[in-house]
Write a structure and sequence with these properties.
mainly alpha; 3 strands; elongated
């Protein structure tokens, strides 16, 4: 059953926030399992559990506001169960794409939407490179021809200068009456 791209984005946002709170709660619960929850943590947990309700199935999907456990260990268990429910939702609404080598959401508008929280390194799909290879070869040939032509013109100009008796580095056009098309520096003197 396809879902919308917005639902997939909401799922990933709730999943990441819930996972972060679970990691923090587990760290505290391993040292002090009976410690009471701070008010800010309780409010945050209630909000996350409420946001996760649309993705849960069965009895965990109640209409009323979710009740949060009173201690750290209870909250860790509760968050773990909700995270497992989010995993079940993700498994039910994703599929593996061998061409892109990642999990894709089954989105209703039939576009490829990878599960971003897994940070997929998408495989580059090999397109028909024959046309690009042909263009690349033409460009390489043109660059080689231009370099060869420049070299041959320089060699020929050097031979002409040598025959005319001009030294190396002399400007054969210095005496020309043609106007210059580019600016030249004129030294005072």
């Amino acid at each position: 059953m396809p879902i919308t791209a917005r639902t997939a984005a909401r799922h990933e946002a709730v999943y990441l926030r819930l996972q972060a709170l679970l990691t923090q709660t587990q760290a505290i619960a391993t040292r002090r399992p009976e410690a009471l929850l701070p008010e800010a943590t309780r409010i945050l947990a209630e909000g996350l559990l409420f946001d996760a309700r649309p993705f849960l199935s069965g009895a965990r999907r109640r209409r009323d506001w979710p009740a949060v456990a009173v201690d750290q260990a209870g909250l860790a268990v509760q968050l773990g169960q909700v995270l497992a429910g989010l995993d079940a939702f993700e498994i039910a609404h994703t599929s593996w794409n061998a061409k892109l080598a990642c999990l894709l959401w089954s989105v209703s508008d039939a576009r490829d939407l990878p599960v971003r929280r897994l940070r997929p390194k998408l495989a580059v799909v090999a397109a028909d490179n024959a046309h690009m290879r042909l263009l690349r070869d033409k460009l390489a040939r043109r660059i080689d021809e231009r370099a060869r032509g420049t070299y041959e013109r320089g060699y020929r100009d050097g031979q002409l200068q040598a025959r005319a008796g001009l030294g190396a580095g002399a400007d054969p056009d210095a005496d020309a009456d043609e106007p210059q098309t580019y600016p030249r520096l004129r030294l005072p003197g």
